Amino acid sequence: PRVVILISGGGSNMTAIADQVSAGMIDAEVAAVICNNPEAAGLQKARDRNIPTDVVDHRQFASREDFDRALMASIDSFEPDLVVLAGFMRILTAEFVNRYEGHMINIHPSLLPKYQGLHTHQRAIDACDTQHGVTVHFVTEVLDDGPNIIQAVVPIFDGDDAATLQKRVQQQEHVIFPIAVKWFVEGRLRMVKNAAELDGNKL
Ligand code: GRF
């Protein structure tokens, strides 16, 4: 199976997945890494791994729709079985989501449905939560709201700030995202009527 990974920044989740693929833990090929930011550090990490890259710079497009259409054209040129949003910081149009629904997953740094949107670590600290975490989910039209696939929970300690908490969460991102990719490319994970199923059992 062919996986296309979309990034906007450092690409640490992309490298976690790519390294599991090259270690033979995931029976797939990272067909391409596509980025909306020409300066993103993750592009160099992909090139270091001889993964084809493409930049679709959202600033070059007059509208969100034009950007999404260019992005779809790039994605489709690599013929993916799975599209992975790994720190991809663009809100996608319904046309885009509908095209890949059931074949597109995202990682969000909170225990969804808690803390959709941005600044999730600070919000958890401000709420005096004692636990926080990260969710991999199927992407649907509602932002940060598709069927959950896998979550990891981390403790929040008294001395935490957003940076220390984000670091603890990101360590778990690099564990659960490759697992979700593995399940999907092995045909064990699928999205059925807006629910995630693993081995035929609803998650
Ligand atoms: C991740 O920490 C994830 O929680 C959020 O954006 C970040 C991307 O990091 N979606 P990276 O680009 O994968 O290093």
From TrEMBL:
N(1)-(5-phospho-beta-D-ribosyl)glycinamide binds at residues 11-13. It holds the Pfam family Formyl_trans_N. Pathway: Purine metabolism; IMP biosynthesis via de novo pathway; N(2)-formyl-N(1)-(5-phospho-D-ribosyl)glycinamide from N(1)-(5-phospho-D-ribosyl)glycinamide (10-formyl THF route): step 1/1. GO terms for molecular function: phosphoribosylglycinamide formyltransferase activity. The keyword Transferase applies. NCBIfam families: PurN. PANTHER family: PHOSPHORIBOSYLGLYCINAMIDE FORMYLTRANSFERASE (PTHR43369). This is Phosphoribosylglycinamide formyltransferase. It comes from Thalassolituus oleivorans MIL-1. The gene is purN.
